[in-house]
Design goal:
With about 450 residues, the chain is α/β, with parallel strands linked by helices. Helix content is about 35%, strand content about 15%. Strands 4-3-1-13-14-15 form a six-stranded mixed β-sheet. A six-stranded mixed β-sheet has the order 5-6-9-10-12-11, with helices on both faces. It binds 2-acetamido-2-deoxy-beta-D-glucopyranose (10 copies).
Amino acid sequence: MWPNLLMYLLFLALPCTISGYQVLHLADFHLDIQYSIHGDNKKMCHDDGQPRNQTLGEFGDYMCDAPKPLIQHAINESARLFPNPDLIIWTGDNVAHIEGYGWEVVLDAVNQTTSLLFSRFPNQTILPTFGNHDYAPSNGFESESSLYTKTWELWKQKLGDENKATFLKGGYYKYRLQNATAVVLNTNLYYNANKAYVNFTNKIDPADQFAFLETELANAERCPNRISENCTSLVHIIAHIAPGAFEKTPNITWFRDEYNEKFLNLTVRYANSIGWMIFGHHHTDTFHLIKDSKENVVQLALMSPAVTPWFSTLPGAGANNPTFRVYDTDTYSKIEDIKTYFINLDELNKNSSTPFVFEYSFKDAYGITGDITPLAMSGILEKMKTDDSLFKKYIDYNTAFWNPQMPVKEYRGAQLCSMEYADYPRYYSCMSKYTKSSDSSLKLPIFSLLTILYTEFVL
Ligand SMILES: *[C@@H]1O[C@H](CO)[C@@H](O)[C@H](O)[C@H]1NC(C)=O
Ligand SMILES: *[C@@H]1O[C@H](CO)[C@@H](O)[C@H](O)[C@H]1NC(C)=O
Ligand SMILES: *[C@@H]1O[C@H](CO)[C@@H](O)[C@H](O)[C@H]1NC(C)=O
Ligand SMILES: *[C@@H]1O[C@H](CO)[C@@H](O)[C@H](O)[C@H]1NC(C)=O
Ligand SMILES: *[C@@H]1O[C@H](CO)[C@@H](O)[C@H](O)[C@H]1NC(C)=O
Ligand SMILES: *[C@@H]1O[C@H](CO)[C@@H](O)[C@H](O)[C@H]1NC(C)=O
Ligand SMILES: *[C@@H]1O[C@H](CO)[C@@H](O)[C@H](O)[C@H]1NC(C)=O
Ligand SMILES: *[C@@H]1O[C@H](CO)[C@@H](O)[C@H](O)[C@H]1NC(C)=O
Ligand SMILES: *[C@@H]1O[C@H](CO)[C@@H](O)[C@H](O)[C@H]1NC(C)=O
Ligand SMILES: *[C@@H]1O[C@H](CO)[C@@H](O)[C@H](O)[C@H]1NC(C)=O
């Protein structure tokens, strides 16, 4: 009797303890140690010694990158809401959007964010990734950089000796989860702004990272019984920059053409062996469908919004409220829901005890009945095209309620086409339909002139 009763009680207790895993994702801190409440918010909130009548907020300004208190508050709040996440994904960009800095700035920013995160979550698995700004100067990623050697010292305890070789070679690695393998990539190597491209010795496959990814995907495809000692049948891809286009600015893409194509070719070929594809970089909340050549939706890339509120001057872009998110997953295979938390920066500056609050759940907001799958999100996108109230919801969440405005003409195209096509040929073809409707020749010359002047000024 007793054993049975115990079994029964245990069974009742089980669902609460092992029903699923929570994966916390923090993206784009962009710590600016020069942020000053006496600064100029048109100059990154740096103090230039000029007298000002008004001080800026202690926790940041929508025009600028994050001061340390904002990052600390975001990490504190994520730990308050999720004291024991099963996994933490940290998709990079720790350095501010500044120019002319050296390695000491990069290493200091990475060191500070590492300390904040690791000390708040001492016992958690944390998977760090480089962002394109985590380099001196930014966007200069090479294979075999001193950055990798220095950050290895900070992160090696979390990553394990077996990853040393790939990490030092190109800042990428893998991590075996209970039921899947996380492949954490340094996609800054593929960024079209990466100035080190001229020096790549292997331009086809910088740092042999594609070969690494393909090996892992092929292993997963061959792995028997979904899971065994030496392999898993599922690979989750985690990186800073995603393949595909920026959703807020028409015709802005990240990867060089050939790398985007190669990345997507691999994604399509091994779509069944890929679980999640998780990224940051946009600072905004969006997703990309990945389609095969026959227009079948085979994969989904999820972009997490940022902690930094920084105002991007790209046309149609802007700022965002600080956020972080949590993925609910069964056994590291399906994503059951995605819950995003945010804080209104103005409120936080008025009251330093303002908590991060629940923003939305994919499942509830979009009315998804099953898991968050490529097909489910494809269904949502199709609906958004005609259902303005659904599209408006997405637009609200896109910036975590910072100045949400329904995009029109090519800006609407940028949103919808970037979500529908991560490959450039079909993205551009989709975009060409939107520009036709926007008849710029009808604009008054003064408007065009202003637009040009404005664009030049803010870029
Ligand atoms: C500060 O306020 C005074 C009075 O309104 C104004 O004359 C002055 O130009 C302001 N100074 C700055 C630096 O904005
Ligand atoms: C974050 O938490 C730490 C430790 O509890 C505390 O010392 C610090 O003041 C908090 N910082 C912010 C910005 O909330
Ligand atoms: C990181 O910070 C710690 C503690 O502040 C310091 O001891 C260490 O030298 C720093 N490391 C780097 C690489 O800056
Ligand atoms: C982390 O683990 C250590 C050793 O198991 C334990 O003493 C400590 O309390 C844990 N810290 C937290 C914050 O859970
Ligand atoms: C390319 O390599 C040369 C020779 O080492 C170096 O001088 C140059 O700065 C490098 N260029 C970039 C963009 O990294
Ligand atoms: C793992 O082991 C299985 C069974 O022994 C084998 O079939 C498979 O090829 C191995 N996979 C890898 C990646 O070594
Ligand atoms: C991608 O796949 C297509 C179709 O198989 C092929 O023609 C193309 O060369 C591949 N592109 C790259 C960059 O590997
Ligand atoms: C791994 O995933 C499979 C399929 O989702 C599931 O049946 C199995 O229970 C999982 N195993 C572990 C150890 O979580
Ligand atoms: C500041 O926010 C906290 C938490 O929401 C609240 O309890 C407190 O009353 C607020 N203080 C003021 C002065 O509004
Ligand atoms: C974007 O690119 C497409 C394809 O080249 C072109 O037709 C369209 O005019 C471009 N849109 C803008 C806003 O530049």
